[in-house]
């Protein structure tokens, strides 16, 4: 058993879920759990501490944004790092997710180098605070370098 808290992967497509868990194991994260719905993820998160949540954006009945909002609204869970995944993101998805508190985005299929880089950035980030929201436009390009400047 390692000292690192487990990572929780949420994806309603079981094949993709198993693939992400396998990839995470392969790049050095031995303890990765997978669930197939947002409500199930919240239940797990309230039972034990996780180092990170990696969630698909498009899921039913609770999508990745709704799950993220639930996590950020919960005082015990609000500092849990959160990465959204999807085959494609449009600007509106990114904007809504950023405002909801997403730490990063990773496009599917995963590029291993990008996955490792994003994981390192997110897992080494500072805890969030409740007060003083940051202006979205100033932090967007810093938090999401792939977007560049607007």
From TrEMBL:
For the modification 4-aspartylphosphate, the affected residues are 56
SMART domains per UniProt: REC
Concerning SUPFAM superfamilies, the annotation shows: CheY-like (SSF52172)
The record's annotation in Pfam families points to: Response_reg (PF00072)
* Lineage: superkingdom: Bacteria
- Record-annotated Response regulatory domain positions: 6-123
**Gene3D superfamilies for this protein:** 3.40.50.2300
Annotated keywords: Phosphoprotein, Transcription, Transcription regulation
Membrane keyword on record: no
GO terms of biological process kind: phosphorelay signal transduction system
What is the official name of this protein in its record?
Answer: Chemotaxis protein CheY
* Organism annotation: Methylobacterium symbioticum
């Amino acid at each position: 058993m390692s000292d690192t808290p487990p990572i929780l992967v949420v994806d309603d497509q079981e094949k993709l879920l198993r693939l992400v868990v396998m990839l995470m194991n392969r790049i050095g994260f031995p303890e990765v759990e997978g669930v197939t719905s947002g409500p199930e993820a919240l239940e797990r998160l309230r039972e034990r501490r996780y180092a990170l949540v990696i969630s698909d954006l498009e899921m039913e009945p609770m999508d990745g944004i709704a799950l993220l909002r639930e996590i950020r609204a919960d005082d015990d869970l609000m500092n849990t790092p959160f990465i959204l995944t999807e085959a494609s993101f449009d600007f509106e998805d990114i904007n809504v997710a950023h405002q909801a508190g997403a730490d990063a985005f990773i496009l599917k299929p995963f590029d291993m180098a990008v996955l490792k880089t994003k994981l390192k950035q997110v897992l080494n980030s500072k805890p969030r605070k409740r007060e003083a929201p940051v202006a979205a436009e100033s932090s967007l390009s810093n938090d999401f370098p792939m977007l560049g400047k607007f």
